[in-house]
Amino acid sequence: HRFMAFSMLLIAALVAFVPLAASLWILLAIVFVLGLGKGALDVGCNLLLQWVHGRKAGPFLNGLHFCFGVGSFIGPLILAFSLKSTAEIYWVFWTIALLSLPLAAWFWVLPDPPHPARVAENGALSVPLLPILLIVATFFLYVGAEVGFGNWIYTYAVTLGVATTITAAYLTSVFWGLFTVGRLLGVWISTRLRAQTILFLDLAGCLASLALIMFGKNSTALLWTGTAGLGLSMASMFPTILMFASERWHVTGSVTGWFLVGSGGGGMFLPWLIGQTFVAAGPQSMMLVVFTAVLANLLIFSYLVSLKHAPVASAA
What we know:
mainly alpha, 80% helix, single chain, 316 residues
């Protein structure tokens, strides 16, 4: 918890200095270190919940990632309020920095949870390489598809002429709004269904939603319906993939870190790839890239489910 507190203090300090950067290179250095602190916090939050709750971590992981959606929704509101009140952007960063300080103080005094029970002999805690690499690949594909669609749906709708600049902005809000609602629903659903069942339902919903958009490329109604369905279907996948992995293999801090390396890589690469194909082959290529990523995830999960796995030790 003190490591988490240090990460939050680092984030608060760096966010506060963003508006004061005197050059692009200073800003790049600040954002680079900010990414390190955010990544450490991301690994820590996901891992601690698995340590504390073990096999029952599903609802808590979904709750954690629901809060990610809430923050994504509140951030632009802070921006709008700051611009309206002061006509300056600086207070966006300083407000977030100030809000981080009480949380850092709370983490500093919070007792650490127990580590998972150690399984003694026979290398029972060894992590099989192939399944872990495949889980990293699923995070790469999932986050890339999520970020790619969320970032490019505005341009896609405007370029095809099925939305104006205003309605395309509303379309983007619908995706992220239902994404947040889906994560809230995931808290309840994860108490009723196994992780692999949720994942297959999510993937089926994603493919059906993308098919609606692709086959009704000139239909505004199908575009809105498919976008809403995709937001709901994608919502619970990130925490459920984590839960799926922890149910089958011993997920350590380093393994969780590699999962998030995969997600970060996908969040950088697939949106870039969509941009390249968008220019070269037209807007429909965006949906093809996202559809291919989701279909590849379905194939990977089908293979992972077929693998035999050893029982995982419960939390201490």
